[in-house]
Amino acid sequence: MTHIITSLCVRDRGCIDVCPVECMVPGHPINEWPWIYIDPDTCIDCGACVPECPFAAIFPEDEVPSAYTAKGGEYISNVGLTGHFEGTNHHGGPIVLDTTRQLEAGEVVDFTPDIQPNYDFFKSGPGYSAKDVDNGM
Ligand code: SF4
Ligand code: SF4
User: Fold this and answer.
1) Ligand 1 neighbour 10 (Cβ under 6 A)
2) Distances 43 to 48, 49, 114, 122 between C-alpha atoms, Å
3) Residue 131: other Cβ atoms inside 10 A
4) Which of 12, 19, 43, 129 is least surrounded by Cβ atoms within 10 Å, i.e. has the fewest?
């Protein structure tokens, strides 16, 4: 198994520092790979990253919610969305995302489609080579 980062990820980067096996990679280009991705072959399911995420975006693979009820106001980020998010990440650097929308209170969201992109990122996407072009955003 592995842990999965869902579309609740807004690239705060708080999780990356705590991973003991350095298997979390910031996606690039951001509009195609908007999250941080966990290498499923290297993740040891230690769970250390979960409490570090201020946006509660990380789940064990078998606990990714299929019916998440939104509090309202959460941002999700995904390919094809057109909303804008700006913030400051865990290291004080800027976050700018143009693939977002905000959830409405009571909206029910299935995050299980977010599982496959985490595998695809390492199988057919940029994988660890994205680290070479990482600009800190
Ligand atoms: S801490 Fe959460 S929001 Fe930030 S990069 Fe990690 S998963 Fe994404
Ligand atoms: S569960 Fe542990 S090994 Fe897996 S990504 Fe999170 S911190 Fe890294």
Assistant:
1) yes
2) 11, 11, 17, 12
3) 12
4) 129
